[in-house]
Amino acid sequence: MGQLEELRAAVVDGQKTTAVAKVTEALAAGLAPEKILQEGLIAAMGETGALYQAGEIFVPEMLVAARAMSAALAVLKPHLVAEGVPSRGKVVIGTVQGDLHDIGKNLVAMFLEGNGFEVVDLGVDVPPERFVAEVVNGAKAVALSALLTTTMVNMCDVISALVDANLREQVRVLVGGAPITTEYANEIGADGYARDASSAVELLCQLLEV
Amino acid sequence: MPTAGGVKPAASAGLSRREQTTVRADWRLVVDLDDVLQAEGGDPGRIRARNSSALAVAERALELSGQLLHAAVAWRFVPVVGQRHESLLLEQACRLTGPVVVEHLQAAKQVGAFVCTIGPELEDQASALFAEDPALAVALDAVGSVALQRLAHSVREATALEMGRTGWQVGVAISPGASWGLEIGQRQLFALVEAGLIGVSLNNSSLMQPKKSTSFVLGVGPDMTSTGSPCDLCDLRENCRYRKLYESENDCDVVAQ
């Protein structure tokens, strides 16, 4: 089994220590950081996502895979930066104003980062203008989270703020959270709805064509 | 337990909300490994069969939770004095409004308002852990969700048991945000019970803090119907991952210390 194949297997199996060791070995062996990212970590998360979508693994298993990926990425990141490897795009993510729930949003942020996106996480209870500011600063996508029927309506305010700032056409908007549906996403003028972290990655890749 | 003893006599009319609120904090919550895996969206049987590393993470979350769960319940029973349009009128000029409330509580002689929490420590720890170990953080969050659900279930069961002794029935639990408007429901419910006694407050969006808290009203009386599930009243029932867990609960895993 090759180094990258071993790295992929370690990530998919959620073996954090092994995944970190495999990245370190691959770097020491002279493999390009971008190759390790693309063919190791991103490929592993793609495989994990596919297994999840097929019902072969479940959320807790996807989480341990994400944990392994995250640890391995932390080792790789300085090398990616040093070599000027571009990200797949900048995404700003946050839980909308009035809502304090962060676990689901954090998961999506982690999965996006593990799949090569640059993620700006604004946290919880985020007012619309902060999303707008990040789009001005180059974010290609906005990912909005809400856990409650009473706070999901604040997603509309973010989209309106983007429209008011004449930025809506240049950015993709994803929405997610327990009460959100595809119908709701369409109703408020979002570009898509993702039911979980894995779907969010897939959707964003489609929307940004990366 | 929330009992008829929690129903203050008519002479309590001059007492403050705080004085009429009963608190109990001596709960011991029992959550098992399969509950955690299921609450995270997993199939415990298949995860066990693979001996996945997710098992060890869930076990660690359960270990950690032992020091972090601080369950408490505050409640108060208030006699029903009438009904007007979409309002249920209660003693001391209190009221509950909304079609769901009136439909499900119109046969009640009294309404019990309950606020339950497992305290802030578990959710604080889960948030703090996320950067370092997201899998453990989510598993810990799942332990908290199950524990809170068990606590609320236990309160409902204990109330039904107690009321049954006097021939009264307990209706389905109605929570703000689940077909009963969140803002108006929380405002009216928190006007009945002094949730601050167990450290629970509402923010500007009517969300409870600590987040791992739940609130509901129960109608009690000789003519109440005790069938049905709170999930029947919830707008999120089709997508809710906790519904299966909730509806499969046949017994109470929460016991008094």
Assign a percent range to the helix content of chain A: 55-70%
Number of helices of chain B: 9
Poorly predicted parts of chain A: none
Q: For the record, what CATH class of the largest domain in chain A applies?
A: Alpha Beta
Low-confidence stretches of chain B: 3-11, 250-257
Q: Shape of chain A, please?
A: globular
Total number of beta strands of chain B = 11
Kindly give the count of domains of chain B. Answer: 1
**So, the CATH homologous superfamily of the largest domain in chain A?**
Cobalamin-binding domain
Any idea of the CATH topology of the largest domain in chain A?
Rossmann fold
Number of strands of chain A: 5
Number of domains of chain A: 2
Mean pLDDT of chain A: 92
Q: What does the oligomeric state look like here?
A: heterodimer
Task: Provide tags for this entry.
A: alpha/beta, Methyltransferase, Methionine Synthase (B12-binding Domains), Chain A, domain 1, Rossmann fold, five-stranded parallel β-sheet, 10 helices, 59% helix, B: alpha+beta, 11 strands, 20% strand
What secondary-structure arrangement, pairings included, does this model have?
The complex is a heterodimer of chains A (210) and B (257).
Chain A: H1 3-12, H2 16-28, H3 33-53, H4 59-82, E1 90-95, H5 103-114, E2 118-121, H6 128-136, E3 141-145, H7 149-152, H8 154-164, E4 172-176, H9 182-188, E5 192-193, H10 197-208
Helix pairs in contact in A: 1-2, 1-3, 2-4, 3-4, 4-5, 5-10, 6-8
Chain B: H1 17-20, E1 22-24, E2 27-29, H2 33-39, H3 44-50, H4 53-65, E3 72-84, E4 87-90, E5 95-97, H5 99-105, E6 110-117, H6 121-129, H7 134-164, E7 169-170, H8 182-192, E8 201-202, E9 208-209, E10 213-221, H9 243-247, E11 254-256
Antiparallel strand pairs in B: 1-3, 2-11, 3-4, 3-6, 4-5, 6-10, 7-10, 8-9
Helix pairs in contact in B: 2-7, 4-7, 6-7
